[in-house]
Specification:
Oligomer: single chain
Organism: Auriscalpium vulgare
Protein name: P-loop containing nucleoside triphosphate hydrolase protein
Number of helices: 7
Structural class: alpha+beta
Keywords: Hydrolase
Order of helices and strands: EHHEHEHEEHHH
């Protein structure tokens, strides 16, 4: 199994509306960690429970360990905290792995807009997530196998990254995105 560590930098701006947009319509999960839509009524509520019909807002109470939220919601809360702290180094380890593709797209747009000016280290397996990053480090068996821009890596004929892109079934889109990023940066 391969792990992929990726790095990205862009200008910083902080606005709360993207957070509200990401959290809008999400619902806290039941105390057992299940989605609130199918919460088990036999589970006794505790003081840390959030009303299952209440949308998540900046005022929503978070219980110890965030057990009143789903894994995806906890990931969103962690990213919101990093935004509000103005962290200069952000480490995202499969930050959107428990989130659907539509929400992932919104989160990726927010990451690009809001985490600018910070060093962003991202571990990801979704190639679309990192194709427009500044540099990619591809690890193979715990060692650095490749390090370059996505555009240079996707053009490397016998490269691991290119092979992954080809196997994804979305090579043309990934190649176009990498080329666009390189052109924007004056590298293509």
């Amino acid at each position: 199994m391969r792990a992929h560590l990726l790095v990205h930098r862009s200008p910083r701006r902080l606005r709360l509306p993207p957070l509200r947009r990401l959290l809008a319509g999400t619902r806290p999960s039941s105390p057992t960690g299940n989605s609130s839509s199918g919460a088990d009524s036999s589970v006794a509520p505790s003081v840390t429970d959030v009303e299952s019909k209440a949308p998540i807002s900046l005022e929503t109470k978070v219980s110890a360990g965030g057990v009143n939220f789903s894994q995806g919601q906890r990931q969103l809360i962690a990213m919101a905290r990093a935004l509000l702290r103005h962290s200069s180094i952000i480490v995202l380890d499969e930050a959107t792995s428990s989130i659907d593709f539509e929400t992932d797209s919104k989160i990726q747009a927010t990451i690009r807009e809001e985490f600018g000016g910070a060093l962003l280290l991202t571990v990801a397996h979704r190639l679309k997530t990192v194709i427009d990053y500044d540099r990619l480090i591809i690890l193979d068996k715990g060692s650095i196998a490749e390090f370059d821009t996505p555009w240079n890596l996707i053009r490397k004929e016998d490269g691991i990254f290119r092979s992954m892109c080809l196997k994804s079934g979305t090579f043309a889109q990934l190649e176009q995105a990498a080329k666009g990023k390189a052109a924007k940066d004056g590298l293509a």
